[in-house]
Amino acid sequence: MKKIALVLTVGLLGACSMLPNKNVAGTYQGELPCADCDKIQAELVLNADNTYQYNTVYFKNGKQYPFIDKGKFTWDKQKSDVIRLEQDSGNLLLKVTDSYAELLDADGNPVVNTQLNYKLMKKEADLVKKKSVLMTELRNICNCKVQGKECER
Fold it and tell me: What are phi and psi of 120, to 5 degrees?
């Protein structure tokens, strides 16, 4: 009976790790390439309620042109790690992971055949906070004791 409980516990823990993680709240920052300017300084703030703020500064001919877009983002139905910014940002598609948000092409695929960087990196404080939250959630969901002891239900 203890072996069955152990097997079920391992299965439950495995299932917990395979659940899609849709909590991508945090701040992503970086420098993006620009076709008609020197560079784009970008900051993307994703909130837990599926709202966002996308702050960009375009650098061209020694001048700076700031732009702020706010709205809601939606999850792509085909790709579980892709979001769409739906307001003035022109329906941008981004792949969002625990550590970065990457701008994608119109089909939701990474830009290929380029040495240019299309990733915005998640701020370190957000990563540390997320790791702590995930560990707490895992303990709460699985409610298991560590060190090989039988799990409680």
Answer: -105, 125
